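Sequence in, structure out.
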Amino acid sequence: MLDLQEVTGGYAPGQEVIRKIAFSVREREITGMVGLNGAGKSTIIKHILGLLEPISGEIRVQGKTLTDDPLFYRGQMAYIPETPKLYEELTLWEHLELTAMVYQVEKTALHERAAQLLELFRLTERVDDFPTEFSKGMQQKVMILCALLVQPPLLIVDEPFVGLDPLAIQSLLELFEEMKRQGTALLLSTHILGTAEKYCDRFVMIHQGEVALRGTLPEMREQAQMPGATLDEMFVSVVRGQ
């Protein structure tokens, strides 16, 4: 679904932040991207989204690059950012309507999907409220609703659990699992290593702008020469340079 081939990039010429990043995200799998703050995870996501252009290398979604077919490329993915970004003049429901219009979700499907998501995240009674009336956690729920509404083939998620209550986190994880079963490919960037180890099928560990380890847990244990190690133990070893 998503394939990064030796991607080097950054925010200005000559100022590389990520170097030769290579990994894939497959259908029916959750790939966890882990690393310290400043390791390059957000920069990788910005390149995938097309907000930054690689200095070298290539990014393909379902075999196509952004240059090949911009509408197809962007239409295959939805994104949940770490920090909510909403329109203050639009209600919760108007955010859902706008999302449905952009992604060409039919009206019947909009109402069916929205009803389920609103109930799951306990926002049914808040559809006519504006973002200024929401806590940060509730604003994050609106971002999640908009992304899940479109049922994308590829879902990219950057630290989705920030500000969410435990019940919302569990509901979101259950939704991710259901989406995976239905064929969605998910890239999940998170600091919560225990949750990543439990729910992710594969991992890519980013350290100082490069891929330190990647693959399934057994594959990463072999790469790190740490038989039986947890994801947390391998992460600490990589960061400390052991």
